[in-house]
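Researcher: We're teaching a course module on how sequence relates to structure. For the next exercise, students receive a sequence and then see the predicted structure as tokens, so they can try to spot secondary structure elements on their own. Here is the exercise chain.
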Amino acid sequence: MNLLLRVARGIDGLNRAVGWSVMWLILAATLISAGNAVVRRVFNVSSNAWLEVQWYLFAAVFMLGGGYAFLRNAHVRIDFVSAKLSARGRNWIDVIGIVVFVLPLCAMMIKLGWPLFERAWVSGEMSSNAGGLVRWPVYLLIPVGFALLALQSLSELIKRVAFLLGRERDPLDHTGPSEAEMLAKEIAAAEAQRAQHTTSAAR
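Model: And here is the predicted structure for the students to work with:
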């Protein structure tokens, strides 16, 4: 079990890094969208390529952020039902849900998504819109995104089984800081670290 918990922590670290990276894509999509609107309004010029870049960035955030959302327990739950259950009951429901629903869904989507990407890669499929982009990068997001979600599902399964065996704290315990508070603390810590690096480099 100790080895499995180390594997789970490694998966958590991977999805945490991916989640932090894709957050910047939201800013990029916002800036591109604003730039497109200004250029279209001021110069009466529009570009399908830049419009599709926005869609690709949104797709990347949505697909690649699924594992991070699961890590954070930020996905949709029916809280008024789970709140009435014991900690063991909530974890048993998650174990069943992961094994019966999440992992099979991930396997199916990876199996269906990879050939879609492969065909687009080989054929060089392009957007049907004039001046549009090549399609394979956005198709690749499907198997990669579901692979990250599958890995995080395995991590969450390990942690829930460990709790049920009395080897780990409750992964669904919400008595600590809220997700927003934890995220704010992580952002503040990252900003402080970046400022420290900048100061050191200036010296």
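Model: If you want an answer key for the exercise: Residues 1-172 form one domain. The chain has a mean pLDDT of 86.
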